[in-house]
Write the structure tokens for this entry.
Amino acid sequence: MKILYVDIFYDYGDKSRGSNQIGQMGFKNSFIQLGHQVEEFYYDELQSDLPRLNRELLEKAEQVQPDLVFFMLFRDQFFPETLIQLKSSYKTINWFGDDTWRFDSFTKKYAPHFTWCITTDKFSIPRYHELGVKNVISSQWASIPAVKDEFLQVPYKRDVSFIGQVHPYRSWFVKQLRKQGWKVDCYGFGWENGLLSLEDMQRVFCSSRINLNLSNSTEWDIRYLVSHPKALAHALKSSKNMSQIKARNFEINLMGGFQLTEYVPTLEDYLEIGKEVVCFRNVGEAIQLIDFYLKENEARELIRKQAWENARDRHTYFHRLQYILEEI
């Protein structure tokens, strides 16, 4: 197929944050590996002029004449009339990755204007049907490819690491772990160690005995809420009232890391808890589990190996898109 791929080139559309790795190395490259011709339409620099953005997308589609227009909608950059016009001439599809917290404010507005919709929240499927949207596929985030394969032999340099954007709850959570005497290395936008390249990210995953995966949703742990005057206000304001599976759940595993993650609904549909991933519900459980798995090397390494094998065989964007394209 000829696919017109519509996405932002930079992470969150911000050049200072580096490239959108999921879009580039995940979706786009997987389409190519599956044997399809890909034409890109990146709209980072057009977001300040939405009429021009929409006009140029229609012109690009007219020029390319794609078999499929694959969207990664970011915010409200595309006019409904633009999507309706595209749908009337081409097969269109969008990846809705935040239905757990913005179905009503976002998805509901756009879903009817696509030929197909992909949701990462299977509980939202009945809501699509209520909108009259029948062509909806349940899928999930995945891992971008690992840079190297020999990471299982990399020596450990860190006990506990976290990679992800800074967030008030995440900062508080890490502080509680550090109070136990553990050195917790944090990387990503807003943290003291800053952003990492893909290769450096993989190096951290595989050289850390334990890799944390922490939520950025609203948290109601009373210990957190009373920790800072702004904590409660932030929780009350946030629209992210439910945790969700993210790409990190699969990236840590494929890149050779042992993963300790906050439990999120349906995680067990993809990863076998206790055999491929270890879960906690609160900071107290996380402290107990870190203490255990730092000492129990054999148990930790077995989970790490099984997690890698499962991610390699089932949880890359190649696997996700292969299934999606078969469905449509």
User: Anything to note?
Assistant: The radius of gyration is 20 Å. Residues 173 and 179 are 10 Å apart (CA to CA). The mean pLDDT is 91.
